[in-house]
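Re: the request from the purification team.
They wanted to know what the chain is likely to look like in 3D before they choose a buffer screen. I agreed to run a prediction and write the result into the notebook, where they can find it.
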Amino acid sequence: MADYRKSRGEPLLVETAWEVVNPVGGIYTVIRSKLAAMGEKWGRRYLLVGPWMPQVAAVEFQEARPPQYLAPVLDALKSIGIIGHYGRWLVVGRPNVLLFEMDGGRSHLDAARWNLWEHHKIPVPTGDAMINDVVAFGYMLERFLDELAKRETRPVIAHFHEWMAGSAIPELRRLNVPITTVFTTHATLLGRYIAASDVWYYDHVPFIDWAKDAARFNIEPQVRIERAAAHGAHVLTTVSNITGFECEHILGRKVDVVTPNGLNIERFTALHEFQNLHRRYKEKIHEFVMGHFFPSGAFNLDRTLYFFTSGRYEYRNKGYDLTIEALARLNHRLKHAGTDRTVVAFLITKQPTRGLNAEALRTRAVMDELRQVCDAIKDQVGERLFFATAEGNVPRIDTLVDDYWKLRLRRTLQAWKTGRWPGVITHDLLDEANDEVLNKLRECRLFNNPDDPVKIVYHPDFIAATNPLWGIDYDQFVRGCHLGIFPSFYEPWGYTPLECIARGIPTVTSDVSGFGSYVLQNVAEPEQSGIHVLRRRYTGFDKTAAHLAEYLFRFCQPERRDRIEMRYKVDRASEQFDWSNLVRFYDASYELALSRA
């Protein structure tokens, strides 16, 4: 390989994904978060390629003149109707990016479909817009890499993420285009479908009939593209050993390199800085909790813990069923233990809604009015008290407030108290009767009864600063919480627990998630670092729920000083998940690909 480099120069890396400058999934986070680490090694020899999405590109992309090696390639593609936009992605590192207009690929769709069927026996239905766009994008990638290889003297490594970019690989290999290819699957598509309905999925993986099940779930073209990309690539990688197990049996090829996902871990020069951030954003969550719960009855916020779970609405795969069951058991245990501790558990996902619940908006508006009235009284009392005491008088406090403000305060308090139990959901769902999360809450009788120490907030929308209930972004919300709960049943990697660790917040993951599997193999005594790995493989639902409830009960016992110490430990452990440490696995896959070229 050294001789290969000596004769042809340092390689050019082309990394491509549907999510380049297109925030539609977790792969967007993978690619964007590792840009600094990639740029440090590859510099100008690194090019990202994705689809041109005008609305997103208008915000995140700045067009520029293409470099000398790309200009003739883009001219050749333009002559056949394929238009590429070259420029910089306006994120950390400002990497070079090439985005292709989808119409260019759609104009060649018939030829692309014919190639996939005639040469690789992959059927592409004419009526599926999503699959057609994937095939069109793959055709443009194929033509681009072919034109690039004709003009490049350097070795070219083409790295494809997921089947949506990998549809170019079969034809690239058939045409013997002189590049080396790496294919990363972040999950097996068929595995995600089967796991949602099979409680013993991992036991059944070795016996899956992929063709039969792909037809059963009506995803045969996608699965065949994924398998063809996996078999055609010089190097196959995936994000975890647990997904590598699936690849071997569902895709029919063993993984060459496991490339775990990381984040850019924000390091602080002083340890108290992240504690200050936790306190600041916890106060923001306090505001929400007061607005949601206190009209029905107050509880001690100093004795309250904030738990949360979040992710795509995959009720079973993401472990929402297990989380709710464990919270119900925790509620029973805390109630019978006679504790003064309150737990507010947030369930955050995305579901179709009509909008925010009218009562949630009303109580928030009344709370804002209450704050304004209290601030006005405070200012009035402070000013008058100062002048009175400066004159040598010590007046009664109630004489310092105008009758107007006293009356307004009483009216606001009257509007504030409702006497009703607080709702468990913040939005009006389009299909409330069939919502599995809501039905599970009803089954477990988690209704926010005033006597219940565990309170529930089901928030079927992602948290953002523009949301009138919050005023903070999701990452700030995470910093303000005490524990993240992610007991996924099917999770090829799992960024949500890693995002907790990156922000110094303890977390629960599972041994059948990629992140949990990685932790068990690479972190000594993970629970001492604030990472609890729940055993789900070879363990039934009831037993796992009991284990999770027991852990949550134990988590409720320590006092504030102990929780601060735990956050210090989490912060210290987070560094090992930084891309500066994990990008070496990508480097290994590229070295292997070059050796096989």
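For the purification team: The domain at 2-264+581-595 is CATH 3.40.50.2000 (Rossmann fold).
Please add any questions underneath this entry.
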